[in-house]
Design brief:
Order of helices and strands: EHEHEHEEHEEEHHEHEEHHH
Pfam families: Glycos_transf_2 (PF00535)
Strand content: 15-25%
Largest sheet: 9 strands, mixed
Organism: Chryseobacterium antibioticum
InterPro entries: Glyco_trans_2-like (IPR001173), Nucleotide-diphossugar_trans (IPR029044)
Number of helices: 10
CATH class of the largest domain: Alpha Beta
Protein name: Glycosyltransferase family 2 protein
Low-confidence stretches: 270-291
Number of domains: 2
Distance between the termini: 28 Å
GO molecular function, one term: hexosyltransferase activity
């Protein structure tokens, strides 16, 4: 099998060095890297090109104008030639065994995608915490919406299965990954890897940490959930017509937040310091994994 590592890049050359070096350290070696640059500044593109110049396994493509993350990630898929694909943000990094641990699960023909545990890191990529919500999910549930981000990094998938979905929505400016997870979930089994394979970097320049874009993030998440319900032929949710629900993220999250689940979150909050559990669950911080 061949692995396509997909990177949608926009003005992240300074952080990309860590990502680049983590890819070179992979124990699984049959890979390519597809980078699509979304009209970064000239200096950023120059730095990026200089870094990958001497490695023919890296392929760089450029958007002629700034098109956004949905369009750019879709272009990554169009250029990919591997059997298995996985997106890596240019400011993040992989553990050395990330590809090897992921790809071996595809020996099971029923597996269409994999996902793992991951680390939360600071701006210098120093590990701070383990993201607590990653866990094995039940496949084939019509009303699974990944509301607590059980499925996230490091996410990989069969290219052949992706081609049988509606593919990446190029109009989305956020929630692109969430949309992709839910589409692939509908096509087969997602396999969980109980190992930390990804380092997610928190820094002020991160798109998903930009609170000024909160309203747009919620609109995109609502749209992703609405389209998911339509694909699954769900017209009513908790006895309410989905066309009459103003905010599906808030509505579903509130319905799923039973007394028991609230107690579980309080326990996690107490023993894990709570910072990152609340980071993904609190209403004012749900944008963390939406880029």
């Amino acid at each position: 099998m061949k692995f396509s590592i997909l990177i949608a890049h926009y003005n992240n050359a300074s952080f990309f060095t860590d990502c680049f070096e983590s890819i070179l350290k992979q124990t699984f070696t049959n890979w390519e890297v597809i980078i699509v640059d979304d009209f970064s500044t000239a200096s950023e593109k120059k730095a990026l090109k200089e870094l990958i110049l001497n490695d023919k396994r890296f392929f760089l493509y450029e958007n002629e104008t700034n098109r956004g993350v949905g369009y750019t990630k879709k272009k990554c898929m169009e250029y990919a030639t591997g059997d298995i694909c996985g997106f890596v943000d240019p400011d993040d990094a992989l553990t050395s065994d990330a590809l090897e641990e992921s790809i071996k699960l595809y020996n099971n023909k029923n597996t269409v995608a994999t996902y793992s545990q991951f680390y939360i890191s600071d701006k210098n990529l120093i590990i701070d915490k383990i993201f607590p919500n990653s866990k094995k999910i039940k496949n084939g549930e019509k009303k699974f919406f990944n509301m607590q981000f059980e499925v996230a990094h490091f996410f990989t998938f069969r290219k052949e299965t992706y081609e049988r979905t509606e593919k990446i929505d190029e109009t989305l400016t956020s929630s692109v990954d969430q949309d992709l997870y839910l589409k692939l979930y509908e096509k087969g089994n997602l396999a969980f890897i109980p190992k930390k394979l990804y380092l997610y970097r928190i820094h002020d320049g991160g798109v998903s940490q930009n609170k000024t874009k909160k309203e747009k993030l919620y609109k995109n998440w609502h749209l992703v959930l609405y389209n998911t319900l339509k694909r699954r032929n769900i017209q009513k949710l908790y006895n309410k017509d989905i066309d009459h629900i103003e905010s599906l993220p808030n509505f579903i999250f509130e319905k799923e937040s039973t007394l028991i689940s609230k107690l579980i979150r309080k326990i996690f909050n107490f023993f894990l310091g709570g910072k990152y559990l609340l980071f993904c669950l609190k209403e004012n911080n749900t944008e963390m994994l939406f880029c």
